[in-house]
Amino acid sequence: MLKFKHSFRNSCVSEGRLIGWWAKGGKLQSRLTRTRKMDDSVQPLFTFGVIADIQYADIEDGFNFKHTRKRYYRNSLKLLRRANEKWRKEAVQPSFILQLGDIIDGFNKKYDASEKALETVVNELDKGEIEVHHVWGNHEFYNFSRDDLMSSALNSKTTDGGMAEDVVPTRESTEESYTYHFSPAPHFRFVVLDAYDLSLIGRKEPSERYYQSLEIMQAHNNNDDLNHPPVPKGLEQRFVKFNGGFSQDQLDWLEGVLTLADEKLEKVVIVSHLPVHPNSTDPICLAWNYEKVLSMIRAHKSVVCFMAGHDHDGGYYRDASGVHYLTLEGVIETPPDSEAFGTVYVYEDRMALKGNGRVADRILMYP
Ligand SMILES: Nc1ncnc2c1ncn2[C@@H]1O[C@H](COP(=O)(O)OP(=O)(O)O)[C@@H](O)[C@H]1O
Questions:
Q1: Which residues line the pocket of ligand 1, CB cutoff 6 A?
Q2: Which SUPFAM superfamilies would you find in this protein's record (predicted)?
Q3: I want to staple 12 with a disulfide (CB 3.0 to 4.6 A). Which of 33, 62, 188, 305 is the partner?
């Protein structure tokens, strides 16, 4: 992705604290999250692993589109293996792993190797014998159709998410989206979103959502190559074919889930391949209608964190209400002598992300 750095990226400063941060020359940053010492003396309620943008392919190393970042296609499998080994050796076994999308690279399609590559990474993950929750990214759609994905190992959808007794709005649409929620422990809920529900890669003609996506793109991007951003800078860059958005049906469903979570006094972590906060990512990686999700998060006190992938440089932002927006560094652009994964230790009052390699340690206090 482009390397235009937003001034807030990787900052732990909330909107209200910005001036103070500048005044203190950034010292607040280390005080608040990054280097705050992990307290190992208290047992976490549960833990989970996070990893993003593995983009495995059995091909030689290459580069991103702009030739600014190297991509280690084969080595990404080794980094996944090392992450898995580390998770397996944890004193507290992670309850699950969040795989934030783009598990194999689009190049596999070109070499007719999509199935084989998927089998390779899934077998690697299976060795850990830890439940994996998969998010779908653009590279999933370069390799597979939505129907294929639904019947693949990348469909980790669970049926009722522990809310079976409640009335969560059902979606009438014939165009199914890949969304679900689950509760790994009392008072905690994870929501998996489908950021390519509206998109030109996740939807195909003649579906209604494909035409809706085309309309959105035509309103914002006049380039012949729709992967080419409409503007060189700023938020409008996000209107590219390799991004997507959330359908109204999906947003209505999310509203229902968050309303119930609020009532049950749960803490909710939302995950999606595409980031939704402009200060947590290069704006070219944002979901098309990110504002809709942001305003919904602001309206529901249950949400504590939003996790995404897609921007391989990663990013972090804590908004004025204390919600954490974390974009995880991508494995594919991580040199062989480094790492890019994390383990999150969940406590009553916070989540502690223990990062490895390019992923920083962070204490994520609940709002
Ligand atoms: N500025 C650009 N202009 C045209 N095509 C681009 C541009 N940036 C990316 N692409 C294309 O869009 C697709 C996704 O971009 P890429 O950077 O590879 O995304 P990812 O980080 O998800 O791998 C690729 O096919 C890439 O060649």
A1: 1, 64-65, 102, 138-139, 225, 227-229, 242
A2: Metallo-dependent phosphatases
A3: 33
Residue pointed to by tokens 């999310």 = 254
What range defines the domain where residue 99 resides? 15-365
We report the CATH number of the domain holding residue 245 as 3.60.21.10
Looking at ligand 1, which residue's alpha carbon is closest to its atom 21? 1
CB-CB neighbours of 211 under 10 Å: 12
Distance from C-alpha of 72 to C-alpha of 112, rounded to nearest angstrom: 19
336 belongs to a structural domain: yes
> Does some domain include residue 106?
yes
Nearest CA to ligand 1 atom 14: 242
For 227-246, what is each residue's pLDDT tens digit? 999 999 999 999 999 999 99
Provide φ and ψ at 147, rounded to 5°.
Answer: -65, -40
Ligand 1: atom nearest CA of 240 is 12
Q: What predicted TM-score, i.e. pTM, was given to this entire model?
A: 0.90
Q: Has residue 4 been placed in a domain? A: no
Number of domains in the chain: 1
